[in-house]
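Protein in question quoted for reference:
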Amino acid sequence: MLSVILNRDNEAVRLIDLALRSNVDDADLLNNKAFSLAKLNQINKATKTINKIILGRVSQDLRWVVNATKGLINLRSNNIKLGRILYNESIDYFRRENELLKLSRALYFYGLEEKRLKTEYGIKYLTEAFKLAVNNKLDDLLYLFNKDKKLLKYIKKDT
């Protein structure tokens, strides 16, 4: 996920747009663009982008990643109930399939959204993501936690 690596969603969207010129229907790129647009609160653009993905042409895992992105879009659209359902469906799938990196990312980004919404779920999901990252040496997620000292303090209160 480019926006995860860069942590600059505007730059991620710009680079993804360049890549989409030669890979117009690339579902991974479209999903990542929709994710970054949602984080930028560009909900209409995020929705149009995610709807370009033809789910019948993608792997089962990517379907659930797209589902989580739809969860983010709905949470950012104040469709809280649907956003939670979509995120939790994806989390359940990744847990069942033992997809630890995808599970930890879904927990992390869902936790950030719940923290943004100031709910009790934020600490729950972020703490689970952090424990998964530590116990399974998921370096990209540990990087995200370690660069946000406030987030680490928020989590460490509960671990």
Summary: Residues 103-159 form one domain.
